[in-house]
Structure formats: C-alpha cells, structure tokens
C-alpha cells in the first residue's frame, strides 16, 4: 500500500453488512490519508448482480455515514476508481478462473483476501484461490465467527494453515479497532492513577455492557444460524474482558501478550447440558463463577472458571 508494489484487496462478501459498515469506510479512510494509491485495486466480490455504478452508489451512502475522515467528493471519486465489483457465485469452483483475469498477475503485487463471509464458505473459497494464477503473495484476513464449535474451528484452522501457512493468516476482531477498546490498555498500564489500583484489592466488580443501536437489519439469515450469543459474547465481549482482566504485559512481545490472554481463560471446566439453571457445585469448585451459555438452537452447556 502506497509503496513500490501494488496491492489487490479482494473482499468475498462485498454486499454484506461487514463490508458496507466497516470495510469500505475504512478503505476510504486509508485512501484519504494516502495509505492507498491509484495503483492499488479493490475487488469486491458479491453474489448480487450489481453494476459498478449501482455498487458505488451503495458504498457512498455507507462511507458518508461511517467514515472517520472528512468526506471529500473529489477524493471519493478517486477512491472508487480503484474499486471493481465482480458478480460471482463463490460456491462454484469453476468461476474462480474468471477471477484470475480480474486480478493482476504481476509477481510483485500482493493479494490480500478478506473473508467477510460465514465460516462454511472458507474452504471452498480457499480451494478457489489456490486454483487460480493469482495465488502468489497471498494474505488472508478472517473475521469471527470462526466455525460452529471447537471441532469445526480446529478443522477450519488446519485447512487454512495447510493451504496458506500460519504466517499468511490474520484472524481479527474488528471490535478491537474501536478507540474505546484500544484505550483500555493505555488506561490500565500507562496511567499512574489506575496502574497501581487496577486490582482485586480496589475493584469490587466489573460490568461489561454492550449497548447496540443497530438491530438485525439485513443479517437475519446470519443471526438465525449464529445468534447474538455467538455474535457478541464469545468474541467481542470476551476480548474486552481479557483486556480488562489480563496481567501487565510487555507490549513489544506479541507472544507474551497472547500467552497472558490464554492464561486468563484457563483452566476451564465444561459440563454437559442440564435442564435446570441451578447446579450444586462440588467443594473443589466452591470458588468458581457459574455462567450459562445457551446457543441459538438447542444445545446448552455450563462454563466454570476460577475467580
């Protein structure tokens, strides 16, 4: 981006809420700040049969509402000149050859694929990418939810790593990009007023409240399968909890930071479903906090964690 090599930024799921609400405003911000240039390309892949003009008209509405940069008509016109909308059924492996004609085959260019789709499409998209010419210099960006359950998530991870290698995969949670969330770390460890008092001796309890103004809107099919619990609690809110509760870290060492996050949530004991909301805890678990995690469908389980 804005360097000697060009970047192809390819978005699968380009007509979804994540792309409209987050990705396009963010990409416009990058262009506005000269982090993207006219030699870069944004290829939006969607299953709706839009013309480029129709797609740009939709994108403009979302950029106007959600971009953190000032909206400049001339800058926006330059920005959309690097956007190409590609109508494609990414479930059909035969359609990926057409995609290779859209992408630059310059060996020095970088191809950044963003999976803004449900996890059941990850495997077929990965196979499609591997089948085309532009599978060099590939990086993947993957959002939550990552699979339907632990077993599915492990299988997805193994498949992606075998296709592209661990160093080329970025698993992200866009909630961590929120300014308020990023400020938790600074407030805890760089502010002397809080640094020495942010512990069990001075804090009685922590409440994390997710207040959302946005309803289900166009995401009904996604919520019908995932539900609000999987969409919010196990990723966004658990990420915030980890930042609030983790031990002090050396922010220069990513592995150290990650190890502290993992330690925070282990050991966990998971029990099978029971019909009652109350269960007697054995003596060894008398200091554990009980919470009920109910999936959107029918399965129920309890998670215990040490306090």
What does this structure look like?
There is one protein chain. This protein has helices spanning about 15-30, 50-65, 75-80, 95-100, 120-130, 150-165, 180-190, 190-195, 220-225, 225-245, 255-265, and strands at about 5-10, 40-45, 85, 110-115, 140, 170, 270, 290-295, 300-305. The protein has a 6-stranded parallel β-sheet, with helices on both faces. Strands 7-9-8 form a 3-stranded antiparallel β-sheet, with no helix packed on it. Helix 5 links the parallel strand 4 (about 110-115) and strand 5 (about 140). The chain has 11 helices and 9 strands. The chain folds into 3 domains: about 5-170, 3-Layer(aba) Sandwich (Rossmann fold); about 175-265, no CATH class; about 265-305, no CATH class. The chain is an alpha/beta fold.
CATH topology of the largest domain: Rossmann fold
β-strand number: 9
CATH superfamily of the largest domain: NAD(P)-binding Rossmann-like Domain
- Can you identify the CATH class of the largest domain? Alpha Beta
Low-confidence stretches: 271-307
Mean pLDDT: 80
**Protein structure class:** alpha/beta
Helix count, DSSP H or I runs of 4 or more residues: 11
As a percent range, the share of strand residues is 15-25%
Biggest sheet character: 6 strands, parallel
- Give the SSE string: EHEHHEHEHEHEHHHHHEEE
Alpha-carbon Rg, integer: 22 Å
Tally of distinct domains: 3
Q: What gross morphology would you assign?
A: globular
How far the N terminus sits from the C terminus, by CA atoms, comes to: 45 Å
| Level-2 CATH architecture of the largest domain | 3-Layer(aba) Sandwich
